[in-house]
Design a protein that fits this description.
Length: 294
């Protein structure tokens, strides 16, 4: 095998953001609507602050309104629930995202469940998870949606593929598996208690790794020609005392076996914010009964 197609997540995310911006402009022109995304940040975690700043910049660049609500780490759960309630009521807010993780004194599940499902652009509300699982229109979690778009960029019809998802978290593994089922794949979900992970992985025409273990998946676990989507973001020691990012797949080995593979960084990562903007647009249109295809 001469080497896999490297799936360029950065370029695909740029195209998606452009499509979203064009649809936002159309929504403004034809319906006088400017979608608005509110991001709530509790505490001063520097990594989360960078994410929130990036989200704000990208939201404005797509022509949408961005609202950033920053509150101290000492904010009580009831005060945070009040903030979410107020955003639920605001007509200019179409999407609400509460940046995770939250401080330990706040029950994350309770906060997610307080978000109006119609504004739940992260797709974490149990109503949206249930709708996805039962094949109803739903706001779908951003990273899983990005994974499907990347897989479809190399094979538009995924029907009939043997798909293996390694990882079963509520934010990545499970929704990816549901989306693949909706694409008519035959889906296996593997996790830390799965026996014979290498053999399970080797069955996959489409392998999604969402584990959080650096380079766990080796080249010889991969079926020749498979599509490999690597969600993992792991920081490991690099040269000269620096650190570098690697995925859950051993990229250098896997690229000689796979048919197509996402790199880390530059694969799934850039799709997440682009899908968040897409979800905000979808939520804005749906709340006003406007039909839209993005
Ligand atoms: P979680 O830690 O919530 O879940 C990890 C999953 O992997 C669990 O289901 C766990 O199994 C499984 N697992 C752990 N070790 C093994 C093993 N040795 N063999 C098989 N399965 C194993 O992680 P997330 O789903 O939140 O994230 C996964 C990765 O994706 C992380 O690297 C994260 O940084 C990255 N990520 C990237 C995003 C992006 O690109 N924008 C967004 C979100 C996440 P069990 O359930 O049995 O414990």
């Amino acid at each position: 095998m001469s080497g896999a197609t490297i799936i360029d997540g950065k370029a695909i995310a740029v195209r998606l953001r452009e499509d979203v911006a064009a649809a936002v402009a159309r929504l403004g022109r034809e319906h006088g609507v400017t979608p608005g995304l509110a991001v709530v940040l509790v505490g001063e975690d520097p990594a989360s602050e960078v994410y929130v700043r990036n989200k704000g910049r990208e939201t404005r660049a797509a022509g949408m309104a961005s609202f950033e609500i920053k509150v101290p780490a000492t904010t009580s759960e009831s005060a945070l629930l009040e903030i979410v309630g107020e955003l639920n009521r605001r007509a200019d807010v179409d999407g609400i995202l509460v940046q995770l993780p939250l401080p330990p004194h706040i029950d994350q599940g309770r906060v997610i469940e307080a978000i109006d499902p119609a504004k739940d652009v992260d797709g974490f509300h149990p109503i949206n998870a249930g709708r996805l699982a039962t094949g109803q229109p739903a706001l779908v979690p951003c990273t899983p949606l990005g994974c499907i778009m990347l897989a479809k960029s190399v094979q538009p019809d995924l029907a009939g593929l043997e798909a293996v998802v390694v990882g079963r978290s509520n934010i990545v593994g499970k929704p990816v598996a549901q989306l693949l089922l909706a694409e008519n794949c035959t889906v296996t979900i593997a996790h830390s208690r799965s026996r014979s992970l290498p053999e399970i992985a080797a069955r996959a025409d489409l392998l999604v790794a969402a584990v959080g273990r650096p380079e766990l998946i080796r080249g010889d676990w991969i079926k020749p020609g498979a599509i490999v989507i690597d969600v993992g973001i792991n920081r490991v020691p690099g040269e000269g005392g620096k650190t570098r990012l690697v995925g859950d797949v051993h990229f250098e080995d896997a690229r000689h076996v796979a048919g197509a593979i996402t790199p880390v960084p530059g694969g799934v990562g850039p799709m997440t914010i682009a899908c968040l903007l897409r979800n905000t647009l979808v939520a804005a249109a749906a709340r006003r009964g406007v039909a839209l295809a993005v």
